[in-house]
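ERR on first pass: missing label on line 2. Operator R.T. fixed the label and resubmitted. Corrected input:
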Amino acid sequence: MRERQGDAPPDDVPVVLAREGQHGPVIHAANRTARIEGILPGSRVVDMRAICPELQVAYADVAGDHAALDRLVLWARRWCPWTVRDGNDGIILDTTGADHLWGGEAAMLIEMETQLSLLGLTARLAVAPTWGAAWALARFGPVRAICGPDEAYFKLGPLPVAGLRLDNSTLLLLRRLGLKTIGAVMDVPRLSLTRRFVKAGLQANPLMRLDQAMGKQAEPVSSVDAKPVIRVQARLPEPIFDPTPYLPDLCEDLCEQLKQAGQGCRRLHLTVYKTDGDVSHVDVATAAPTRDPAHLHSLFRDKVERINPGFGFDLITLAAGAVEEMQDKQICLDGGSDDDLHLTRLIDRLSAKFGPHAVTRPVLRQSHVPERAEAQIAALAAHPDKGAVMTKERPLRLLDHPEEVRVLYAVPEGPPAQFIWRRQTHRVARYAGPERIAPEWWKDRPGTRLRDYFKVEDQTGQRLWLYREGLHEDGRGGNPRWFVHGLFA
Amino acid sequence: MGSLRMHKALVGQGKRPAMVPHTLSEAFPSHPTDASAVGFALSRLPCTNAPILWVQDRLSRKEAGRPALAGMPTDRPVIMVDLSRAADVLWAMEDGLRCRSLGAVIGEIWGDPPSLDFTATKRLAMRAEAADVPCWLIRRAASPDLSAARDRWRIASLPSAPHPHDAQAPGAPRWTLDLFRSRRAKPGQWMATYDRAADRVDLTDAAGDRTLDPREGAAGRRAAG
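pass 2 clean. output:
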């Protein structure tokens, strides 16, 4: 069975999906009109534009397609209990013993095609005794092909060798050998094929693929289990305006479910269904998987006030999202407290109250430009790389935006002897520097000026980090300006 | 100046005796853009690798900048919390003090907001002592009004020590420390020289050499602030 996502562009317009290749975008998939024009998946978009100037290109969402197909695998459980994803564009259903429920195999295929078309999907379906035969018939066989238990030899015979799920180099080899159909491969003596492809893997071995298609080699369907939905709800006898009294019990029930599944959640979705049909959501997130009811309840502390109750609501549901495996760990033998756990909970509480952007962790980065030497990452994120080791002294405080100072008394070398910063006159008593920091040409705009940093100490002992932007007559603007960028202890 | 002498309140910084619990201290920089108070607070923190929770309100961040990781004396992790109101800063600090795995909690509050009253500081102090986590409140542009902080410091920058290799350059930073109210120690004034390489504060009595106070070494007396 094969499905393609149809966003319903007109059928007579050649449309292709592109993805990033090594040398620019390449064709990921093409519609029927485009394939008739001679556009092949895997070739470069610019080349295909030369062939077909009216080609319409959209970018493919490969990961999204992947996830959608995984959901469709579970959705297809309505017809049979075992389903599995097959490559990037197919679903295999093990319908053994399930077809009579739909009135036979032909009726089942029609039912499947109807239901999939209601989802907006084009499907090409086939029933066959083996995975390999179904794969070949769905892609190269007639519409809604049905292959009985002993008909595989006759049904597969006329199909091209591409139906054997082989890689491109093997297909090319078979074509050069003159073997164009599966039937031609079947007629080759088995001994010759074995000898020729004795070292080839499954993808490159026509004999093993043929055995799989003919049922001589087993290829079972290993079905994946759907993740259980962990959700609790409270149905109320009459509409209320405040869900707070129900939250502790809901959290307890949810955590009990999570505990039985051996899992913890990183997100919680609280949904209230109002009497006028409207729905409100409150979502909270945690930094590490948890199933502690008191902690989860505390995350909702200030959030439930933001629910607009309207005329009241009579159904509250609490669902766990981002569910992960979680083991109870004992950190120390004497039963001491788990320090990491407390830290993650603290970050959860702070992020839940002030928003995730308010709680960050600065880390050093490899850059000499001071404002780029530090990055803000999420408080519990993994540290990507170690920053450069600073040999020069850096200030303890850094201003978010360097503040320009007015120079009262400039001297040819070194920092100005007097300047005004924030309406106060500073007289430079001592200074160290300059430390020249050149712009990073691979990041900065052209015309960015270099900086000469000075550590200056004024008459009262205040130590500032001052820099001059640019040089006299460097061709990048007028006279250099002076800025305060940081404060030393 | 004279001989270096550690005050009781500052004895064994970093490797403090286990008897004295960590508590809430307040630091008042003489000028909002003076980073000496932050430097002093950092130098007083115990030497561990536990993360620091650093909470700033909006005005402190805007007027006095943010702490720069590259300039910190030790490379311990910092969790920054950027907030806009002083009440939120106090809430976040109090919440942080429930977590014993933090190395320190540092809060910066601008001015004298009504939410920062005696009760709020008392809550912070009691939480800090219960969790045994050092807590510093850095108050810029503020008046030292009623507060339950156990130690209250006024800190200002002084012209730095001479640079060993360059007469033109500022050397090791010097500060004046004024412990004007303390629950545990005798208030006093010192001149401090900060040794960046060793992360150590060397103290000199601000008034120079004098004879040793006979009460020095006795139980700390309670001073009114």
